[in-house]
Design a protein that fits this description.
The protein has about 350 residues and is of the alpha/beta class. The chain has two domains: about 250 residues, Aspartate Aminotransferase, domain 2, CATH 3.40.640; about 100 residues, Aspartate Aminotransferase, domain 1, CATH 3.90.1150.10. It contains twelve helices and twelve strands. A seven-stranded mixed sheet has the order 1-9-8-7-4-2-3, sandwiched between helices. The chain has a three-stranded antiparallel sheet with strand order 10-12-11, covered by helices on one side. β2, α4 and β3 form a beta-alpha-beta unit. α2 crosses α9, α10 runs parallel beside α12 and α11 crosses α12. The radius of gyration is 21 Å and the shape is globular. It binds pyridoxal-5'-phosphate. The site of pyridoxal-5'-phosphate has 13 residues, from α3.
Length: about 350
């Protein structure tokens, strides 16, 4: 019950143990088509360029910046935690100029500050932000931020690593241009795959680049020779065949549950956990409106030691929760309820184990 990887569903583990077939085997190729459809379903998009990058969420992040940022390009990046900082690092490494909009850790990205920054920087062409900041547990209003970006003529790059499957996300309706996620947070799957989706506007920008994408592996114009639809796929890299069996199974499961039901399950379980924690006198870091249901950041009560408490949870209860990051190290815990981990028995175990660790009499 940390910030990821979350529990992998047994069906996903069992799918991964099937025999490895060729990455151009007709059976595998039809599974690739289904995987694309499954990703389109959970992203709520009809984007043709929707695919899993064969590497973790960080590679999905890098794919977006490598393909869309050209040298000298001005990119507004909203930073309210660790992953926003990484976005900034990506912008500068690909030769862009980062214009930073900062918000306090634990708060959502401010729409007004973004609007001001775009008014002050009319040459900016891209806006980047994190939908669900896993480092703090804060959710930002992606729909609103994308509308502002669009009003200023900017494309958007959205980090949906922790949001996908756990909270409402509508790529087409919110007009997100480039989005990346991860397999190991709310999708109940193993780590190592990054689903991405690019809008037609993003593809137009990509195809009108003046310079080559500097990464060969992440250059989408080459990867799409393998992941583009249809039977005439060609070798780009050896796909992680068994890992993709796992992703495919997790997509089948979300389809069975229904994506909206998955969002609801995360919200309902968050409320049960929250009520239990509050009864023990534990408070949340993030204010109610900005809270992520799948990542509960709580303040460690006075007099309780962070490290020894987490070791006790792990050793005595086989339960992992996440530590605080940055200025919040030693001050907060991050309790994940992501994907298959978001279920009743985990909440019960977590509340029982915490009451023991905190010395609360039942
Ligand atoms: C986990 C995470 C990432 C990085 O994903 P990896 O699979 O660890 O590379 C990026 N952004 C956010 C918001 C995350 O939670």
């Amino acid at each position: 019950m940390g910030p990821g990887p979350s529990d992998v569903h047994p069906r996903v583990l069992s799918a991964m143990s099937r025999p490895t077939i060729g990455h151009l085997d007709p059976a595998f190729v039809s599974m690739m088509d289904e995987t694309k459809e499954g990703l389109q379903y959970i992203f709520k998009t009809e984007n043709e360029l929707t695919m899993p990058v064969s590497a973790p969420g960080s590679a999905g992040m890098e794919t977006c910046f490598a393909n869309l940022v050209e040298p000298g390009e001005k990119v507004v990046v909203c930073i309210n935690g660790v992953f926003g900082m990484r976005m900034k690092e990506n912008i500068t490494r690909f030769g862009g100029e980062a214009i930073v909009v900062e918000d306090n850790w634990g708060e959502a990205v401010s729409a007004d500050k973004l609007d001001e920054a775009l008014t002050e920087n009319p040459e900016a062409s891209i806006v980047a932000f994190v939908h669900a900041e896993t480092s703090t547990g804060a959710l930002s209003d992606a729909k609103k931020l994308c509308t502002i970006a669009r009003n200023h003529g900017c494309l958007t790059i959205v980090d949906a690593v922790t949001s996908l499957g756990g909270v409402e996300l509508r790529v087409d309706e919110w007009e997100i241009d480039a989005v990346y996620s991860g397999s190991q947070k709310c999708l109940s799957a193993m780590p190592g795959i990054s689903p991405i989706s690019f809008s037609d506007r993003a593809i137009k920008k990509l195809s009108s680049r003046k310079t080559h994408v500097t990464s060969w592996f992440l250059d989408l114009s080459l990867v799409m020779g393998y992941w583009g639809k249809g039977a005439n796929r060609t070798y780009h890299h050896t796909a992680p065949v068994n890992t993709l069996y796992g992703l495919h199974e997790s997509l089948v499961m979300i389809k069975e549950e229904g994506i909206e039901n998955s969002w609801d399950r995360h919200q309902k379980n968050h409320i049960i956990l929250r009520d239990g924690l509050e009864k023990m006198g534990i408070n949340f870091l993030v204010k109610v409106e900005d809270r992520l249901p799948q990542l509960n950041t709580v303040i460690i009560p006075d007099g309780i030691d962070d490290v020894s408490s987490r070791s006790k949870l792990l050793n005595d209860y086989n339960l992992e929760i996440g530590a605080g990051l940055g200025a919040y190290a030693g001050k907060v815990w991050r309790i994940g309820l992501m994907g298959y981990a978001s279920r009743n028995e985990n909440i019960a175990l977590c509340l029982l184990a915490l009451s023991d660790v905190l010395g609360i009499q039942k």
